[in-house]
């Protein structure tokens, strides 16, 4: 009986250790404490909230991308968030998210909600495939904003569905278009991302939806009365 318990306990220890080995580590650093935006980050958002939302966004992205298994995902051990004294909004490079303290400081409205929405976008860049560098930049940004849209963090200043000039314009325009494509085939964006693991070809749209991306864009525009 004791031996039996010891065996179960060993299994539990092994299972826990394995999980710990593969868990993603999240690190938050505020490099802008000497700026108004850095102070606002500490007061209205905070490192604790950030450390909570980073893994939440990751789990959401793995679900949207239909990547239940480790083998499906990009191999990333650590994601670092830096609040930096810089212009712009945010960017992601080498699994480091750099967030502008100036943007946080100057944002009028619910800054915590805006911060969270941007984190979903940036975290998507950590996990998405980029077609081995061959995918259009507008599509990469569109997928990141599609995730933000699906997480219910689309801000009010975004274009409405049907607006925009080109499918690969990027950001909100492409996100709304991808949402249309996804409505034609549930899981479309997940399947597109899977195909983008090793390369990119516009024919992926034909493979998944039976139409060229240009045809899909004109169908989409027509559905909304070709609104600007
Ligand atoms: C893209 O796919 C089409 C259709 O399958 C193929 O003919 C073409 O060679 C591919 N282009 C590239 C660059 O792989």
Which structural class fits the helix and strand makeup?
alpha/beta
CATH topology of the largest domain: Neutral Protease, domain 2
Strand order of the largest sheet: 1-2-4-3
Number of strands: 4
Supply the CATH architecture of the largest domain. Answer: Orthogonal Bundle
How far is the N terminus from the C terminus?
Answer: 73 Å
The CATH homologous superfamily of the largest domain is termed Neutral Protease Domain 2
Keywords: Signal
Protein name: BSP domain-containing protein
Pfam family, one: BSP
Q: How is the secondary structure organized here?
A:
Elements: H1 2-22, E1 25-30, H2 36-45, H3 47-64, E2 78-84, E3 90-93, E4 96-100, H4 101-106, H5 111-127, H6 137-150, H7 171-184, H8 188-195, H9 203-209, H10 213-223
Helix pairs in contact: 3-5, 5-6, 6-7, 8-9
Bound molecules: 2-acetamido-2-deoxy-beta-D-glucopyranose.
Short description:
The protein has 228 residues and is α/β, with parallel strands linked by helices. The chain has helices at residues 2-22, 36-45, 47-64, 101-106, 111-127, 137-150, 171-184, 188-195, 203-209, 213-223; strands at residues 25-30, 78-84, 90-93, 96-100. Helix 3 crosses helix 5 (111-127), helix 5 (111-127) crosses helix 6 (137-150) and helix 6 (137-150) packs across helix 7.
């Amino acid at each position: 009986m004791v031996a039996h318990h010891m065996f179960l306990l060993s299994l539990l220890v092994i299972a826990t250790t394995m999980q710990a080995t593969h868990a993603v580590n999240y690190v938050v650093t505020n490099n802008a404490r000497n700026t108004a935006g850095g102070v606002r980050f500490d007061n209205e958002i905070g490192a604790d909230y950030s450390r909570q939302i980073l893994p939440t966004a990751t789990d959401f992205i793995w679900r949207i991308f239909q990547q239940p298994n480790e083998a499906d995902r990009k191999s990333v051990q650590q994601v670092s968030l830096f609040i930096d004294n810089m212009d712009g909004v945010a960017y992601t490079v080498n699994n480091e998210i750099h967030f502008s303290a100036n943007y946080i400081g100057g944002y009028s409205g619910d800054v915590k909600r805006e911060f969270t929405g941007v984190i979903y976008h940036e975290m998507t860049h950590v996990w998405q495939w980029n077609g081995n560098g061959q995918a259009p930049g507008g599509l990469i940004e569109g997928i990141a904003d599609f995730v933000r849209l699906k997480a219910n963090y689309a801000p009010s200043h975004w274009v409405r569905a049907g607006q925009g000039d080109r499918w690969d314009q990027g950001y909100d325009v492409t996100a709304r278009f991808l949402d249309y494509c996804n409505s034609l085939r549930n899981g479309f964006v997940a399947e597109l991302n899977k195909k983008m693991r090793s390369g990119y070809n516009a024919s992926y749209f034909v493979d998944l939806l039976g139409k060229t991306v240009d045809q899909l864009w004109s169908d989409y525009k027509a559905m909304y009365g070709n609104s600007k």
